[in-house]
Amino acid sequence: MQDRILDAAEQLLGRLGYQKMTMDDIAAEAHISRRTIYLHFAGKEDVALATIDRIVERLIVRLRQHANADAPWDERLRRMLLERVLFRFDSVRGYFHSIDEIFRSLRIAYMDRRARYFTEEAKVFAEVLASAPRPPRTDRRTHELWAESLLLATNALLPSALSPRELGNRSKVEAQACRIAELVVGGLMQPSTASRRRVSGIRKARLSR
User: Fold this and answer.
1) What is the 3-state secondary structure (H, E, C) of 55-74?
2) What's the pLDDT tens digit per position in 125-140?
3) H or E stretch including 173?
4) Which region, left, alpha or beta, applies to residue 142 given φ > 0 means left and ψ of -120 to 50 means alpha?
5) What topology does CATH give the domain 46-207?
6) Over the stretch 88-112, which tens digit does the pLDDT of each residue have?
7) Helices 170-189 and 140-154, packing angle to 10 deg
8) Residue whose C-alpha is closest to residue 44's, from 27, 57, 60
């Protein structure tokens, strides 16, 4: 029943927008009574936030599929970063014109949720990073920090950060996401400047003996 209600809400967000959408509208679209909706949701705000929760829940499933795929760790990360952006993009295409309105209206409640979304996604990325060959410092916290950096690199391409015009151009967003994924994952594969200097110093010391 909850999915039925959320499907109806998403349809209405595309046709009416968040402000004009009412609980009566949702009930009519879902072909149920308004009382039935209140058995599952506290109100319109709760319904709208639940549509976002559902997108992220489905995204986590997709990320885990990529994380468990039979592919090199760096390729899995690239696919996951691209999925992180495009899955969200595709999920709101039916109502992208009302995205700004939704986030303005729900900003405080959404920001509380966003931290949880970020943590859940970072956990999956950290698991893939932990499976990769690494320089000496490979503790769990390092994996978590790397994972957080990967997510932050693509945050600017999520629907909450894009304009309606940008949300209407999937190919451009996809190209940007691919470039960012290539840059940040490629950076993980290269030793840091400090690491290269340490290695160079060790080599010179050995040669001078």
Assistant:
1) HHHHHHHHHHHHHCCCCCHH
2) 999 999 887 654 567 8
3) helix 170-189
4) alpha
5) Tetracycline Repressor; domain 2 (1.10.357)
6) 999 998 888 888 889 889 988 998 8
7) 150
8) 27
